[in-house]
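Action item from last week, closing it out:
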Amino acid sequence: MTDVYKALAHPARRKILSLLRERARSAGEIAEAFDLAKPTLSGHFNILREAGLVTAERHGTTLIYRLNVSVLEDALAGLMDLFRLGEERTEEAAAQSSAAAWRKS
């Protein structure tokens, strides 16, 4: 999971993921959204692939990138568990429900 968090740390990689959230795109389409050298973007693609956040499929000489949503969801769930975000919401909702029931009685 550390690789995923490291991959998410860079704004260019987050922007790539955001573009891929809309739809699968070729490397060239993604490059059009950046003012970066191709070797720099290639490095970002490699980091995202190694982290499992994207998959690449070759069509002739073109690479098509797709977002791997399940890995992203796992990373977010891991962060929520780490910071106990879901538990706070549950405890907060239970407290509000108890308070509402008490006011009605």
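Closing note: The helical segments are 2-8, 11-22, 27-32, 38-50, 69-82, 85-104.
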